[in-house]
Amino acid sequence: MKILVPVKRVVDYNVKIRVKPDGSGVDTANVKMSMNPFDEIAVEEAVRLKEKGVASEVVAVSAGVAACQETLRTALALGADRAILVNTEVELQPLAVAKLLAALVAKESPQLVIMGKQAIDDDANQTGQMLAALLNWPQATFASKVEVDTGAQTVTVTREIDGGLETLKMALPAVITTDLRLNEPRFASLPNIMKAKKKPLDTVTPEALGVDVTPRIRTLKVEEPPKRQGGVKVADVDELIAKLKNEAKVI
Amino acid sequence: MSEYRAPLRDMRFVMEELCGLEQISQLPGCEDATPDVVQAILEEGGKFATEVLSPLNRVGDQEGCRWEDGRVITPNGWKEAYQQFREAGWTAVACDPEYGGQGLPKLVSTAVMELWKSANMAFSLCPMLTQGAIEALMLCGTDRQKQRYLPKMVSGEWTGTMNLTEPQAGSDLSAVRTRAEPIGDGRYKLFGQKIFITYGEHEMSDNIVHLVLARLPDAPEGVKGISLFVVPKYLVNEDGSLGARNDVRCVSIEHKLGIHASPTCVLAFGDQGGAIGELVGEPNKGLQYMFIMMNEARFAVGMEGLALAERAYQQALAYAQERIQGYEVGEKSSERVPILKHPDVRRMLLRIKAHTEAMRAMNYHVAAAFDLARHHPDEKVRQRSQAYVELMIPVVKGWCTERAVEMTSLNIQVHGGMGFVEETGAAQHFRDARITPIYEGTTAIQANDLIGRKIARNGGMVAQGLAQEMEKTVVELRATGDAALGRIATRLEAGIAALRKGVEFIVANYQSNPKSAHASSVPLLELFGIVCGGWHMARAALVAHQRLSQGDTADPRFYQGKRDTARFYADHILPHATALAETVVDGAEVTVAFTDEAFALGM
């Protein structure tokens, strides 16, 4: 079974985000970039499935500028077998990425796509769902547990929902998006970092895949969230309830 | 408390733009170390340092190690962290691929070493000592010994120690008394007591391989009668499996000012009939082997100086940005400001930053020279690089560690009263730093080495050659026509003149007036460090200037910061070189002439 793992290059979670002075977007010049943490969980899950003998090959995919190769090398160092970069300078939106992935699925014929539920930069939480729709595959989002039955060609996914856990069983092929508690990604080992350089990394273009990636949505303005105001201490519960009722108007 | 974050940007700058990583990666045997792979290694190593080692640093300091009936219990989490560390392959960075290592160049393993030492110095000593033992076996072990011990040590399954010191044999190792008696089958029984054995006993690894200095029967007195032995904690069977417990036991551990989590052991050899060991290399050459290895060990301790200064800087900066206190001088605002706004806090931060960056550039430059000395195809380049490494080792060790004590102390100063209480964690770095100018040869021992073997023995040629190299940078700085760089050039030029004067004094007095030469040795070492640091900061300023004036950088803020840090170094630190030269030349006389009685007068 082949698994496709899309990974996104994002501003590292430790970096304090700065908005560009002209409000056109987030300043990413000379900022530390890393793999989206949810995608790291997806890579880890795919590699574990391979180690268990469930998967035979793990292919990491990224779409974007040439520097995304670094992110793909990270995936290779974590245990992916090979990587594909869809190289473009165009700003990619979830639908465009989903279309690119659908085109790659047609080429690669994986049985499973495992990807992060969302990226920590735009928090869109759309690509996985869009991909499943485009492929007309079943999907299980926010997975906290994944069990593949290769004999029955099904996958059982436990997902975190409001109020508890939901268990779904899907026929393969399918799309799974990962939540935080699915696993704890490993540290890449030194020998694997060295080996990653020698693993195959192919580059394709959206044109070659026949996908139009032109943005469908225009960003008007990006601004910092308003500064938080200082809090107040309340004397007792009554005062708190009064404030929640009258000032915050939440109850 | 702040968690450690790897200074990847500066590391990359130093490696790529000051130390020629690209060229190093073209040397035979270094081909894997291309800049992109090195960056991936440092990023992943940095992640490990931040997420696994750094959070344990304080735990280790507070819990320390416990001795229970011959066992040493390391702090909570230590064993697990070590297991993760070795599973990730970090014990094998610099080792020979023949025994499972990655064979990466010294420049790369040095940067990786900085990560561990900044994140958790007490932890880092275990792999560092193992590395030393690996090198000793590589250098003079038999093939059989190498096959038996090295693969497990490279993989980190077994750790290693160096057993040199005895109660009466500290800086003077010729006084070693531990004895080794042949038992007839080519092996020996060892008897004696060793002290200050770092990670001499613990339960993080399956076995501990002790390398021990001892005397054979009828060995000559003094330094020429000491041999090196390998004595494992568990004997190793022919098939490589572990056999009986050897007669080496930890009888106590020391209670120390710092590095609490690193067990400093007293080891008793042969209390129950003799510890079985094998001779390593030729008889009576133990101390000679130690001297060859000492370069590596002293360099590694010099790296501790840099690493602790970096950690101190990160903590001081975080506190200065966050601590609100007082008003900004010279401003009308009535709003209280972070202490970062106060001029003297800025001065202290810059002092730590400038020293840290200078040390990094200096140490990595020496590491790159190790690689050139080992791998360059041209014999002349190899010799020149080796001479430079030899000259610089006592400076790296002596200067960086002394500065680390000052820098970690400045971190406390930035914290004010909060730095003096243990809760902020600033005190730990200061306490941890205090051992570094002592172990692996005190600062005075480094200074003796500098003035004797490294300067006087070659008539000062190597040091003067380095000064000449530095003068080229002065010319290059002036050629830019830039005013700020011109001033750096002037300061550096004065520093180099001071260095030449100091070196000349040593050369003139070493034979005829050895007491004076030795009395001036530590001031000379400091002078040497200041000027070398200033040279590397000047080189950094030059690169930054070129990048900025040619506009070929997407990262102008970094290069502006680098140039200005170099300016600070030139204005605040380099001028001391001139004063130190006066001390070197004029100050020895009174030190030597002062009467023994006069020390006690006034009491």
Structure description:
The complex is a heterodimer of chains A (251) and B (603). Chain A is of the alpha/beta class and 251 residues long. Helix content of chain A is 28%, strand content 26%. Chain A has a nine-stranded mixed sheet, with helices on both faces. Chain A has a two-stranded antiparallel sheet with strand order 2-3. In chain A, α2 crosses α5 and α3 crosses α4. The longest helix of chain A has 15 residues. Chain A is globular and about 65 Å long. Chain B has 603 residues and is α+β, with helices and mostly antiparallel strands. The chains are: A alpha/beta (251), B alpha+beta (603). At the A-B interface, α2 and α5 of A face α3 of B.
Whole-number count of domains of chain A: 1
Proportion in helices of chain A: 25-40%
One letter per element, helices H and strands E, the order of chain A comes to EEEHEHEHEHEEEEHEHH
- The end-to-end distance of chain B, rounded to whole angstroms, is 44 Å
Q: Based on the structure given, which CATH architecture of chain A is correct?
A: 3-Layer(aba) Sandwich
DSSP E strands of chain B, number: 12
Q: State the distance separating the first and last CA atoms of chain A.
A: 52 Å
Number of helices of chain B: 21
Oligomer status: heterodimer
Categorize the overall geometry of chain B: globular
Brief overview:
The complex is a heterodimer of chains A (251) and B (603). Chain A is an alpha/beta fold.
SSE layout and pairing:
The complex is a heterodimer of chains A (251) and B (603).
Chain A (H helix, E strand, L loop, with lengths): L1 E5 L2 E3 L21 E3 L1 H15 L5 E8 L3 H11 L3 E6 L6 H15 L3 E5 L10 H9 L3 E11 L4 E8 L2 E8 L2 E5 L11 H7 L4 E4 L1 H4 L27 H10 L5
Parallel strand pairs in A: 1-4, 1-6, 4-5, 5-11, 6-10, 7-10
Antiparallel strand pairs in A: 2-3, 7-8, 8-9
Helix pairs in contact in A: 2-5, 3-4
Chain B lengths: L7 H11 L2 H4 L10 H29 L2 E3 L2 E3 L4 H10 L18 H14 L1 H20 L2 H12 L3 E6 L15 E4 L5 E11 L8 E8 L12 E6 L1 E3 L5 E4 L2 E6 L10 E6 L5 E6 L5 H37 L20 H33 L3 H37 L1 H4 L5 H8 L9 H13 L5 H19 L3 H27 L4 H6 L1 H30 L5 H18 L2 H11 L1 H6 L2 H5 L3
Helix pairs in contact in B: 1-9, 3-5, 5-6, 5-8, 5-9, 6-7, 6-8, 8-9, 8-10, 8-12, 9-10, 9-17, 9-18, 10-12, 10-13, 10-17, 13-17, 14-15, 14-17, 15-17, 15-18, 15-19, 17-18, 17-19
